[in-house]
Amino acid sequence: METKVKSRVLLVDRDPDIIASVSSLLAKEDYFVTSCSNAHEAAARISEESFDVVLADVQMPDISVMELLENIHKQSTQLPVILLTEVPDFNVALEAIRGRAFDLVVKPFNFEFLLQAVKRAVQHSTFIKLKDDYSHSLKNMVMEKTRELGNIRQQREDISKDLVGCLITVTEFQDNEAKIHGKRVGAFSELIALSMGMPMEFVRKLKISSQLHDIGKISIKDEILLKPGSLTSDEFEIVKTHTTEGKKLLTGSSHPVLMMAESIALSHHEKWNGTGYPEGLKSDDIPMEGRIVTIVDQYDVIRTQKTYKPALRHEEAVRIMTRGNERTSPEHFDPKILNAFIKISPKLDAIYNSFKGLS
Ligand SMILES: [Fe+2]
Ligand SMILES: [Fe+2]
Q1: How far apart are CA 145 and CA 154, in angstroms?
Q2: Where are the alpha helices (DSSP H) in the chain?
Q3: Is 170 within 8 Å of 159 (Cβ atoms)?
Q4: What distance in angstroms lies between residue 179's CA and the mean position of ligand 2's atoms?
């Protein structure tokens, strides 16, 4: 059988007759009453026990109304206090309001009125406690969920790093330089995105996924990929399919990193002026991640020795990117990303140099 918890009332009054009559009245209404005769004792009781409402005499000799209320609220800020007064005095009422009293009841009591005041105060107290409990459990729940989400995100990032690491290793079987190229493109992309103030979630995904931009090359034969000298136009058409092949390899995942990797694999040879491949997309139609990788990929290619060209110094690479040559034009790049590239280009040079000797 469920036992009803009685509401607890602290009654403070210097008059023993008032204590006796009010205690008896409240006990009959199923309240648990604790009484005391002065403010000092009342403060001690409130610090030791939990009450739902305080009924306090305002004409106590040793304390003013304001001090009484202050002392009670110091112990328990939300505890409702009903003041009991013999004199319906304007100043007492004013002080009661200023001191955040819950109600003011004039003696001799209309008991019905007093009971209604106590009932309202107890309801208020219950509501405050429920609200506090709810806020507390809500706060705990939010903290718990945030912790869980943090763990899940960390696990997902660990998985994605492992997964991408495996995929990059696959490309390494074909060409170790391709792996180092992928790592440099990851580092460059991260730096450009950071300097453009992109959201951290985007930057994190871009750093990992951009390393897979050329993964489609694993479906192209070595004799074309590693052919010394220039490619025929037919061979170049085959090389261009590494974008669509890369998309095919990465497609169908719901993992955010792999979804971005798929987008980059397909779009990293699109050009801002629409002269790129495979779809000839223009300007904002090219996804942001693809536009960033286009620029850093091109920088890395210019810096690196290929079978058909020598390695070039950083300054020369920046000059080509910003002024153009027979292969490259600044119109290939999103102007905002090109600006970010120019601003941070010394850092890109430092990153490029830090990878030397690894290939
Ligand atoms: Fe590529
Ligand atoms: Fe590339």
Answers
A1: 14
A2: 16-28, 39-48, 65-75, 90-98, 111-174, 176-195, 200-209, 222-225, 233-240, 242-250, 256-267, 288-303, 314-323, 335-354
A3: no
A4: 10
Helix (H) or strand (E) holding 85: strand 81-85
Q: Distance from the CA of 242 to the center of ligand 1, in angstroms? A: 7
Q: How many residues in the chain? A: 359
Q: Which ligand is nearest to the CA of 246?
A: 1
CA of 27 to the centre of ligand 1 (A): 85
Chain position carrying tokens 């192209």 = 220
Closest-lying ligand to the alpha carbon of 296? 2
Mean pLDDT across 179-183: 87
Sheet holding 53-57, edge to edge: 32-36, 8-12, 53-57, 81-85, 103-106
| Ligand 1 center to 21 CA (angstroms) | 92
Range with the poorest average pLDDT among 7-21, 165-179, 291-305: 165-179
Residues with CB under 5 Å of ion ligand 1 are: 214
β-partners of residue 36 are 12
State the pLDDT at residue 309.
86
User: In whole angstroms, what is the distance from residue 297 CA to residue 70 CA?
Assistant: 70
- Nearest ligand to the C-alpha atom of residue 268: 1
**Which ligand is nearest to the Cα of residue 297, counting in written order?**
2
**Domains in the chain, start-ordered, CATH in brackets?**
8-125 (3.40.50.2300), 151-354 (1.10.3210.10)
Give the C-alpha separation, 340 to 167, whole Å: 29
Q: Which ligand is nearest to the CA of 189?
A: 2
Count the neighbouring beta carbons within 10 Å of the beta carbon of residue 5. 8
pLDDT per residue as tens digits for the range 140-163:
776 776 677 667 767 766 666 666
* Closest ligand (CA of 182): 2
Distance (Å, rounded) from C-alpha 329 to C-alpha 344? 19
* Model confidence, pTM: 0.58
d(CA 327, CA 322): 12
